[in-house]
Amino acid sequence: MQARVPDVLVLGVGGILGEAWMAGFLAGARHASGIDFSDATTFVGTSAGSIVAAHLAAGVELPTPQEQRRAALTLATPRSTLRTLVERAGQRSLTAVYPIAGAAIAASAPAGALVRAALLASIWTGTRSMADLRDGYLATLGSRFDERLRIVAVDRATGRRVVFGAPGAPAASLPDAISASCAIPGYFSPIRIAGREYVDGGVWSATNIDAATVRRGDRVLCLAPTSALAASRWPAVRGIAASWQLATALEAAGARRRGATVTVVAPDARAAAALGENLMDPRRRERVLAEGFKQGAAAQLDAVEAKRR
Q1: Which residues does the chain have with pLDDT short of 50?
Q2: C-beta of residue 162 within 8 angstroms of C-beta of residue 177
Q3: pLDDT at 125
Q4: pLDDT digits (tens, 9 = 90+) for 125-176
Q5: Which pLDDT does position 263 carry in this prediction?
Q6: Would you state the pLDDT for residue 138?
Q7: Judging by DSSP bridges, how do beta strands 149-155 and 8-11 pair with one another?
Q8: Rounded to whole angstroms, how far apart are CA atoms 112 and 98?
């Protein structure tokens, strides 16, 4: 079967380590099959996924395990302050998002937005600035927003999802959109765009497959790093992972009803063990990158095709 670039590439929430797994998986799949994922028609990125998506759209080569000294995409700038910010954020990991997601995912869309808004209002506003991260994205990617990109964030006041890059969305520079998508509630300060405050897109969904416009015959590939949390020792985290997986399954089913072929890929057992429970721990990045690369290389196109339906 001839390798074919997916029409829609969806890259989900996952922190530093989820980002490394997605980058490794895509690099491994390209190594094995020759697929150039930067040629996808649409990229949907949420939080960590927005970083990988933006790098792909810009034609930046993804890291491979052989590049042991190459910095992670999140840590693309050499500033020590940037590294310190990301490592400190890891102390809270994604747990700041868990209670919001868990309370809102099962609700219908309008009610879910209200629940999210109430919970976001109840959490103290983060004080850590994302200025250094934003400067890093600007230095690496520039400010131009590729028309293929869809970057997901949540309006802090309304609890509603906003997809930057989509028709009708507020105008935003690429660094601002990525920063908004990655602004973990309660830790990072919300990102102000066009007079409104935005926070991490994972508050709405771990994948946001339904943020893409899909057509009959489209092929959608979704990478979902947070599925690894289903094996957590903490019942609350397992519950949130299950809720996220359910939301992803519903989103994928909607795309299939519109005639698309959808594959959702989760970390395999070895990658999940490497990811662990703190997805913001930079010490595990190289191991996770290597396991992602192995999984992507082993998947190959025929293996991925078998999972699509």
Answers
A1: 1-2, 68-100, 102-108, 301-309
A2: no
A3: 67
A4: 666 777 777 787 777 888 788 999 999 999 999 988 999 999 999 999 999 9
A5: 95
A6: 78
A7: unpaired
A8: 15
Tell me what pLDDT residue 299 has. Answer: 87
Q: Are 171 and 186 in contact (CB under 8 A)?
A: no
Cα 231 from Cα 295, distance rounded (Å): 18
11 closest CA partner among 159, 213, 166, 152: 152
| Sign of the Cα pseudo-torsion (46, 222, 289, 234, in order) | positive
